[in-house]
Amino acid sequence: xxxxxxxxxxxxxxxxxxxxxxxxxxxxxxxxxxxxxxxxxxxxxxxxxxxxxxxxxxxxxxxxxxxxxxxxxxxxxxxxxxxxxxxxxxxxxxxxxxxxxxxxxxxxxxxxxxxxxxxxxxxxxxxxxxxxxxxxxxxxxxxxxxxxxxxxxxxxxxxxxxxxxxxxxxxxxxxxxxxxxxxxxxxxxxxxxxxxxxxxxxxxxxxxxxxxxxxxxxxxxxxxxxxxxxxxxxxxxxxxxxxxxxxxxxxxxxxxxxxxxxxxxxxxxxxxxxxxxxxxxxxxxxxxxxxxxxxxxxxxxxxxxxxxxxxxxxxxxxxxxxxxxxxxxxxxxxxxxxxxxxxxxxxxxxxxxxxxxxxxxxxxxxxxxxxxxxxxxxxxxxxxxxxxxxxxxxxxxxxxxxxxxxxxxxxxxxxxxxxxxxxxxxxxxxxxxxxxxxxxxxxxxxxxxxxxxxxxxxxxxxxxxxxxxxx
Length: 471
Fold this sequence. Notes:
- The strands form five sheets. This protein has a 24-stranded parallel β-sheet that branches.
- The protein has one helix at about 1-15, and strands at about 25, 35-45, 45-50, 55-65, 70, 75-80, 85, 95-100, 105, 110-115, 115-120, 130-135, 135-145, 160-165, 175-185, 190-195, 195-200, 205-210, 225-230, 240, 250, 260-265, 270, 275-280, 290-295, 300, 310-315, 315, 325, 330-335, 340-345, 355-360, 370, 370-375, 395-400, 410, 415, 420-425, 440-445.
- The protein has two domains: about 1-255; about 265-470, no CATH class.
- The protein is mainly beta and about 475 residues long.
- The radius of gyration is 26 Å and the shape is elongated.
């Protein structure tokens, strides 16, 4: 019965990928019989778990150190409540790997037969712990079906069925490979990526459903399919992330992002636990520049917490000269049908729920904000004195210390800002660019849809009918 349910889910996934894929037929894995094989302790030499010796029952925590554990197609792994598989060690330890690759057999009639590997609870109605990779560990899963992991009682680092802890950078540690993998009915998170741990580039077709079965044992809700710490957001594979207690990708902002990042449209919103910050390691004078790419249809949600108004902060600056700017380029190309949305995470959103986008440094050309909507922003930014208009620069979009040479903001909608719309916070005697044309502003709290930039020659802000402070 279990294999038929898994097959049904697989058929739905394959159907969504296009008609050129031939759905697999019945799964050819014989039912396990007998007591199987028990495992616990440490694996320090390469070994293989066969289908013939299934079920493989993990009766206590299992560690893989300096070795590779290979699991054959059709093998069944049963894990007793709360116990985990740990792979690798801290930085400098010998590498280790868990390789669990099922297979698809092509039949003579053109159909195919899947022979998966399964990870299930040893006791019905319970949850086992995690498959957990430490900095020198690698997890390789293909045609794998996992259910009932993510026990909250023994969760570490917020838990999850699959937990990946990278070594902390500076580069991504692509230590998780998932190809045609289903993770369901997790006690907490489905997948948890932290400290630069990331998916491999060939990961694809990941399905996570039923996450959040148990009450959270940590400071976060642990009911989402994925928790991911930037800059690993760019590594999230294609798949299906709906059907969980909370259908969103939880962006766990551990620190400022100092490399390129990309937010792909994965069908559910991105929810920031705090704010989000990006800035390169070098100034513009030294060639520093990083890029944030956002796909059409992406939705990002923020919400203030007691004592904090969270914002998206791009670049850093302490002046207008190239040596004082650490720029971030933004490529955010929405469409009419699939706009990019920055909004509140509140169930009943209100103006000022979050701070807005504070863009402290960017390249003068090459930015794109097209078919983007910014809602319920304009909370206290702590920024003042840039450009003309209200001295308090709270707004949905704040540009300061750098002057764009292009009207890169097109078909933008800003609504329900507690303060302003756009702050043109640069100083120049050159006209423009005027960021009002072709954009829509509704319910702007202070009435200043777009403030004018300040002139270098006096008066900096004329504030008359010919040259108003707000455009």
